[in-house]
Design brief:
heterodimer; A: 502 residues; mainly alpha; 21 helices; 2% strand; globular; B: 137 residues; 72% helix; elongated
């Protein structure tokens, strides 16, 4: 059966985590397993997306129980794309971890937990059962909580408490929403739900449930006004962890939003308008937040929020081209945001601080590295032909089609502020004459590192920069993929047919 | 708590409780029981032994650090889930069964191995937690 491949990304990560637990005592072997396994995982994900591209949506009924009674795993183009992106940034982060994370953290099971996190992410993308989605979310939260607290610094614990409280709160709302949904329809299979929700006569109940999902996923995706936990938490852990969090965790929320609102709750104008308004506010709030920060990790955290707004906006516009633009944006954003936090980590390694005021002079000392670091920064802003440009273009054209000038204003404002923030960051961190900073005791500065350590730090940044460049210059291929995803999402009949076979 | 009564009793209770935990594990497919409860009972057996004879003696008895039971159990459970893919080309986690029942135990299928995995994970987790707390206290 060719369908087995749907589960392979999940199984590979699970086996990796188990192997890593077995080699608890030897960090060296753990590093090897993690790096090698991430490459295998990338190959498997490429295999999955190729199969899905050629064969169409694949489904497998785990345990052999037919849908809607068993748990279905579904790999459509959207899920396969997300799994591939997880594998790409997983590979980069795995290498970056090996290069930057302190031994003390690795000793307490950093790498096994990281792979449990990837397991949860792959599971969340591939499952076709809404309760199962909740379970994968729990795996993600538990692993991320371990990652964010490991090391036990004071500010880490402080950030973790905020992070954990709000995420658990979101989970409770999500679970309540599932319970209400189950009470309404008696089903948990997403394809089955799509049919049953459409048949419900009391539209008010349907809308309330949808709003519960919107709040639950909205907290996880950090949309306005539920985003305050994100900038409070994301800058506290080591950069390798922030990179996974910034790149992938909030995007799971976006994935769940897009999935639920294109499959189950469809065609509700009221909901679409709410999503559009929230998207506009998210963009503006994130941009204004980024403007006021001095810590570069915090600047990036606020930019995450700002750009989450772009993706949600694509969902709210609810046309095929807009959804495709949102998907394109997700693809671009996962790669760039993962890379940005790693760039932040590299800057910290060079200078020993995150503060823009104190930083400076990096261009004078490391011109080539600076040119490397400018790739993710430019891609983020979307200077053509870098990768952020194309989806923003489609989003603006789609907004023009519905004559909503507030949205266009928000979009342009968000883009402009991003440009301003990045330009300021470039001027302050790279061009400004550097101050002489007091040397920190026992800090492993970049120029004191051995050459192989340097490669482990710069290599992943280079890898993701190449991917970003490909997304920008090979935009046609990505656009083709995004259009296919948009088409599949807008015609949810295809998904339902693949799962239920009718 | 080094009373002679507890120490003597624990010598007899340890094998009895372990036997009972396996009984609970095996009856779990159709009746109340299963890997989780069985694992808890087995770990109670060791905790009782540790109370009576001291942590060091229990650790010597176990030889392996209980933490290793976690990945071992996970591996057993995962392989039990994977077995239908390799044996009969059926979806992940499908229950496959041996043709003939075994004496005493009854019908054996991949579900039993999944339960054994759970059993090991539960022993590993609870003993690791309890041992770590006891050590640091």
């Amino acid at each position: 059966m060719i369908q087995h491949i749907v589960l392979y990304p999940i199984i590979v990560q699970l086996l990796l985590a188990i192997l890593l637990l077995f080699s608890w005592n030897s960090i060296k072997i753990q590093k090897l397993i993690s790096a090698g396994g991430s490459i295998i995982s990338l190959l498997v994900s490429i295999g999955l997306i190729m199969t899905v591209w050629n064969e169409g949506t694949l489904t497998i009924q785990s345990g052999g129980w037919e849908a809607p009674f068993g748990i279905t795993f579904v790999a459509d183009a959207f899920a396969a794309t997300m799994v591939l992106l997880t594998a790409i940034s997983g590979l980069a982060v795995s290498f970056f971890t090996v290069g930057t994370i302190l031994k003390a953290r690795l000793k307490f099971g950093f790498l096994p937990v990281l792979h449990f996190l990837f397991l949860g992410l792959n599971g969340a993308f591939l499952t076709g059962d809404i309760f199962n989605l909740y379970v994968w979310f729990e795996i993600i939260i538990i692993s991320s909580f371990v990652l964010i607290t490991l090391g036990g610094e004071k500010k880490q614990i402080e950030g973790a408490v905020k992070y954990f409280t709000l995420n658990i709160f979101a989970s409770v709302i999500f679970l309540t929403a599932i319970a209400v949904l189950y009470g309404l329809t008696g089903s948990l299979n997403m394809a089955d739900l799509a049919l049953k929700i459409a048949a419900i006569e009391n539209r008010g109940l349907d809308e309330v449930t949808a709003i519960l999902f919107l709040i639950g996923f909205g907290i996880k995706a950090a949309i306005f006004p539920l985003y305050f936990w994100l900038p409070a938490a994301y800058h506290t852990p080591p950069p390798a962890v922030s990179a996974v969090f910034g790149g992938l965790l909030t995007k799971v929320g976006v994935y769940a939003l897009i999935r639920v609102f294109t499959l189950i709750f469809v065609g509700d104008v009221f909901l679409e308008n709410i999503i559009l308004v929230l998207a506009g506010f998210t963009i503006v709030a994130g941009a204004l937040g980024a403007l006021t920060q001095n810590n570069i990790a915090k600047v990036f955290s606020y930019l995450i929020i700002c750009h989450i707004g772009f993706m949600i906006l694509g969902l709210g516009l609810y046309t095929e081209a807009a959804i495709a633009a949102a998907i394109f944006y997700v693809i671009h954003d996962i790669v760039v945001k993962t890379n940005l936090f790693m760039v932040g980590g590299l800057i910290y390694r060079i200078k020993g601080t995150y503060s823009m005021r104190d930083l400076g002079g990096i261009y004078a000392k490391y011109p080539l590295l600076s040119l490397l670091m400018i790739i993710p920064l430019f891609s983020l802003v979307g200077i053509p032909p870098f990768s952020g440009f194309w989806p923003k273009l489609s989003l603006i054209t789609e907004s023009f089609k519905i004559d909503n000038y507030w949205l266009i204003a928000a979009l342009l404002f968000g883009t402009f502020i991003t440009l301003f923030v990045i330009a300021r960051l470039w001027a302050e961190v790279f061009w400004k004459k550097g101050k002489k900073l007091p040397e920190i005791q026992n800090f492993r500065y970049y120029d004191k590192l051995k050459i192989e350590k340097k490669i482990e730090i710069v290599g992943p940044i280079l890898f993701l920069a190449f991917i970003s460049l490909y997304i920008g210059f090979g935009a046609e291929n990505i656009q083709q993929l995004a259009m296919r995803v948009g088409e599949e999402l807008m015609n949810n009949q295809m998904y339902i047919q693949a799962v239920l076979g009718k | 708590m080094k009373t002679i009564i507890l120490r003597t009793a624990s010598d007899y209770l340890l094998p009895l409780l372990l036997l009972f935990s396996i009984f609970i594990l095996l009856r779990g497919h159709y009746l109340p029981g299963g890997g989780f409860v069985g694992g808890l009972i087995a770990s109670i057996a060791f905790v009782l032994h540790a109370f009576a004879n001291g942590l060091e003696n229990t650790k010597n008895l176990l030889r392996l650090h209980p933490g290793y039971l976690m990945p071992l159990g996970l591996l057993v459970a995962t392989l039990a889930g994977l077995s239908p893919i390799f044996v009969e080309n059926l979806p992940f986690m499908t229950g496959i069964w041996f043709q003939e029942p075994l004496p005493v135990i009854g019908m054996i299928g991949s579900a039993l191995f999944f339960d054994i995995g759970v059993y090991l994970v539960v022993i590993g987790v609870s003993l690791t937690i309890i041992f770590t707390i006891t050590e640091s206290a």
